[in-house]
Task: inverse folding
């Protein structure tokens, strides 16, 4: 009796009106994904080919034990510090580049926009700053590194410049969006009463969104550490270059040690950035 009542109640319960839409979206996604997977020659089953499994297992066996002699660990400590230095120096230069881009891109700090439409001169400057930020961030830091490796040669300099340029565009865009997102009333009040743009920024805009700006900057520093490792594969120095060399030599023990150090470094950066965000929050 109870089973029949439950069945009848379930039949009488109205169905979710969004169910058909969800299934339709899922079906459309599957239809669109299929040609994309075909065009990209996505064949994950090749990973389980007998020859692939044999060569993979042969390489992975050499990972144990990781290389841990003193000479190699001292070299890794040096390259780890270089990796952090590349990320920090690159982000510092990116910050120097991003701050003026963000200030020039922010319409809220324009005095002429208070009366309505922004004047032609400030509008052109604002759009130029926005387009410059687009150009800087549209080219990945890996491509910038490839370019500057051929200009300044192998070494950390190309990695620092690559991070500075790419991250300068990213930071400039996000900084401008953060500055535009908060309440404009305090900033506009100061501007209307004769305050300069920088005075309005420091006394009205920055106090509202300072913690968010710092939080995003710290997050980008964490990303820069990961990027600096990748840039090492194109000759920018650091752990990435050591990993590339070890992998090409099929030195599994060295690869294993470098991967462990890299994971520890990323975990440490993640914990540090999380702690700073909590302190700012």
Result:
């Amino acid at each position: 009796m109870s089973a029949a009542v439950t069945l009848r109640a379930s039949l009488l319960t109205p169905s979710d009106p969004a169910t058909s839409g969800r299934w339709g979206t899922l079906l459309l996604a599957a239809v669109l994904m299929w040609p994309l997977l075909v065009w990209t020659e996505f064949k994950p089953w090749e990973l389980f080919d007998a020859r692939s499994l044999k060569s993979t297992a042969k390489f992975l066996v050499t990972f144990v034990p990781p290389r841990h002699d003193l000479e190699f660990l001292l070299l890794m400590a040096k390259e780890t510090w270089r990796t952090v230095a590349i990320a920090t120096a690159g982000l510092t230069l990116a910050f120097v580049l991003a701050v003026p881009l963000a200030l020039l891109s922010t319409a809220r700090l324009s005095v002429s926009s208070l009366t309505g439409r922004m004047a032609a001169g400030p509008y052109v400057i604002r759009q130029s700053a926005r387009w410059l930020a687009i150009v800087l961030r549209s080219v990945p830091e890996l491509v910038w590194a490839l370019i500057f490796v051929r200009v300044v040669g192998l070494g950390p300099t190309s990695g620092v410049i690559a991070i500075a340029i790419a991250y300068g565009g990213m930071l400039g865009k996000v900084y401008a969006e953060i500055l535009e997102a908060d309440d404009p009333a305090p900033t506009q009040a100061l501007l209307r009463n004769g305050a300069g743009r920088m005075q309005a920024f420091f006394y009205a805009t920055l106090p509202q969104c300072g913690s968010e700006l710092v939080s995003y900057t710290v997050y980008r520093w964490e990303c820069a550490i990961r990027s600096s490792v990748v840039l090492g594969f194109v000759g920018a120095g650091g752990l990435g270059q050591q990993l590339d060399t070890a992998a090409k030599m099929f030195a599994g023990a060295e690869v294993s040690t470098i991967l462990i150090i890299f994971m520890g470094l990323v975990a440490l950066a993640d914990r540090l950035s999380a702690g700073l965000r909590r302190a700012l929050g």
